[in-house]
Amino acid sequence: MSQIGYLAQRSLTRTLRQPAVVVSSMIFPLFLLAVNASGLSAATDLPDFPTDSYLTFALGLTFMQGALFATMGAGQAIAQDIQGGFFNRLQLTPLRGPALIVGQLSGVALQGAFQAVTYLLVGIAFGADLEAGIAGALLLLALAMLVAVAFGSLGLALGLRTGNGEAVQGAFPLLFVLLFLSSGALPRDLIANDWFQAITTVNPVSYIIEAFRSLLISGWDGEALALGFGCALAVLAAGTFAATAALRTRMART
Amino acid sequence: MSALARTRFARAAWVIAWRQLHRMVIKPTTFLLPSVLMPIFFFVAFAGGLSAVGDAPNFDYPNYTTFQYVFVLMQSAVFGGVFAGFSVAADFESGFVRRMMVATQTRSAMIAGYAIAALGRAILVWVVVTVVALISGAEVSGGAGDLLSIAIIAVFLNIAALLFACGIAMRLRSLQAAPLIQLPAFLLIMTAPVYVPRDLIEGWVHTVSDVNPMTAMLEAGRELIIGDPARTLAAIAIAAGLIAVTVVWARTGLRRAEAAG
């Protein structure tokens, strides 16, 4: 536990010492939220659109975007540790692998929470709805942290596997594909192209966004929340498995 | 400029252009694939995922795939220039530009070289995007003159974006300039009528899109492709104006790079 504590403290300190990184990863999703809320407001006139506020609808996507930025942060951080030699020095200590992973992800969780609170406050300030109330806001925050940690573990796996910050950055567009090929811009049942609808249906990111959105638009929707949390946990399991395997390879190689 | 100076200018420009184009061939995954895949990905995401938006009340454009095709065409023109700016910054970091400065008498030829390469890459991207768009159901009902006008607007836009990116890259001479190159381009693109016609945009984006030069080019392109041109000359004039401004920006950037040694 003390190993996790030291690494968590280091990860949190590093996150806090890079306010530019934290702020820039918040500005981009908020800018896209502002553009989409204005640019796609006409979509709310479509029959069966679930809300008359596109801002509320688009806010779900913003939480997911924030999590993807956290992914890159986690991957970048571990890649820097490898490139800078910190990882080699860690090898000389009795550090256990899981402690490294959990410790690194603590900073990601903090960033995810900070981003989620900011997005929610900005959204509400500009007129977004929060049908699930205060308790819903807390659940939304928990989901945002879980999603950030889940995708952060993927970033960590990537960073450990490549050991190169540029390679981690290069993977960013691939993660953005998951975001754009989801139900982030329109509800799934309103997507007119069958093939696109099929892709969004198998994309786990769609269900995570829909879980966020359910708390904002419809209140407490057990099915949407179960699917969203379930998908996030599945990503976390896959990410942790990949990170552990990559860590084992890296430890053996170093 | 004398005939000899013109020859030297052309030769220096060609060296840069050939090097850039050659790198695309020998390392396509690094220097070509991202600039081809990105517009296709945007096209698929917007034309595929948002096609229901074309059914929104008062959406008066005949085909949403065509609507998004023109956007992706203009967007790839801008990002073609932006990616070339990254190459300039990277070449400064590796020392290549400095060596070229020593070897070249007319240094603005270097900018011309990067512009030729950027245009070559953009043309390839446009061909790929056009094939994908036509397969996906984009309709082109404009005549040859209309399509030529779209090409002129896109080429001008590509050159203006390249000159803007060069200006930044030559001032900062580091890849850390990348966000400063990318962000203004992104803002310019996203505050134009991307998803719906301008009349259907609400709020601050509508106000910004009214004064955004990208709007005129995007709207002209969308009119031309359906054979209903109305604001073509204005769009070409705006694109030419952007080149006039960015040429000064790039040249002063070059002077600063020369002064920095």
Description of the structure:
The complex is a heterodimer of chains A (254) and B (261). Chain A has 254 residues and is an all-alpha fold. Chain A has one domain. In chain A, 80% of the residues lie in helices and 0% in strands. Chain A has helices at 2-16, 19-39, 54-84, 86-91, 97-125, 133-162, 165-170, 172-180, 194-202, 204-217, 222-253. In chain A, helix 3 (54-84) packs parallel to helix 6 (133-162) and helix 10 crosses helix 11 (222-253). Chain A starts with a helix and ends with a helix. In chain A, 49% of the residues are buried. Chain B has 261 residues and is mostly helical. Chain B is built from eleven helices and no strands. The chains are: A mainly alpha (254), B mainly alpha (261). Chain A binds chain B through residues 24, 31-32, 34-43, 45-46, 173, 177, 180-181, 185-186, 190-193, 195-196, 200, and chain B through 34, 37-38, 41-42, 44-45, 48-53, 55-59, 179, 187, 190-191, 193-196, 200-206.
